[in-house]
């Protein structure tokens, strides 16, 4: 059995606003990454830098459907994994974001990935919600203890 990560949250903003906050590096740097080599566009290869890690993360953007779907691939433990971000507009004008990251073998390395990246994606969603609804960057100074 392969391991998959599944996380979701509802944000009180319209889907087009949430979509732009995810694909636009100027906005992403306000809640997730410290910088990106470009905007998430279908077929692009990017490099993300995270404030709490001293390493770059290469990202290969897959399929993009505006306001509905963002897919990308990145390497975890020398395995390329697929991340799918689904966006759904709700009748009240809010947006549900569902993230699936797949997949790893069900072994010690896979379980370590599952724990770490589930925590990471839950943090991503909480930070995105705080940024979108309240203009707060929850990551700022949050991981200084790791250095």
Explain the overall architecture.
This protein has 147 residues and is of the alpha+beta class. It has a single domain (2-139), classed as START domain (Alpha-D-Glucose-1,6-Bisphosphate, Chain A, domain 4, 2-Layer Sandwich). Helix content is 27%, strand content 39%. It has three helices and seven strands. It has helices spanning 15-23, 25-28, 108-134; strands at residues 2-11, 35-36, 45-49, 56-65, 69-76, 79-89, 95-105. Strands 1-7-6-5-4-3-2 form a seven-stranded antiparallel β-sheet. 22% of the residues are buried. The model has no long low-confidence stretch (mean pLDDT 92).
Order of helices and strands: EHHEEEEEEH
CATH architecture: 2-Layer Sandwich
CATH homologous superfamily (4th level) name: START domain
The helix count comes to 3
Characterize the largest beta sheet: strand count, sense, and whether it forms a barrel.
Answer: 7 strands, antiparallel
Q: What percent of residues adopt helix (DSSP H or I)?
A: 25-40%
- Share of β-strand residues: 35-45%
Q: Which structural class do the helices and strands define?
A: alpha+beta
Given this structure, which CATH class is correct? Alpha Beta
Q: In terms of topology, how is this protein built?
A:
Layout: E1 2-11, H1 15-23, H2 25-28, E2 35-36, E3 45-49, E4 56-65, E5 69-76, E6 79-89, E7 95-105, H3 108-134
Antiparallel strand pairs: 1-7, 2-3, 3-4, 4-5, 5-6, 6-7
Question: How would you summarize what this structure contains?
Answer:
With 147 residues, this protein is α+β, with helices and mostly antiparallel strands.
């Amino acid at each position: 059995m392969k391991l998959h990560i599944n996380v979701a949250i509802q944000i009180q903003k319209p889907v087009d606003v949430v979509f732009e906050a995810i694909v636009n590096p100027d906005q992403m740097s306000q809640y997730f990454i410290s910088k990106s080599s470009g905007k998430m566009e279908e077929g692009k290869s990017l490099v993300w830098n995270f404030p709490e890690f001293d390493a770059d993360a290469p990202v290969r953007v897959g399929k993009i459907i505006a306001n509905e779907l963002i897919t990308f691939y990145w390497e975890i433990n020398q395995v390329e994994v697929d991340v799918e971000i689904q966006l759904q507009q709700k009748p009240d004008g809010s947006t549900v974001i569902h993230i699936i990251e797949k997949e790893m073998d069900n072994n010690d390395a896979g379980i370590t990935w599952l724990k770490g990246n589930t925590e990471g994606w839950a943090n991503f969603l909480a930070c995105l919600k705080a940024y979108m609804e309240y203009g707060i960057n929850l990551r700022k100074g949050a991981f200084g203890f790791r250095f």
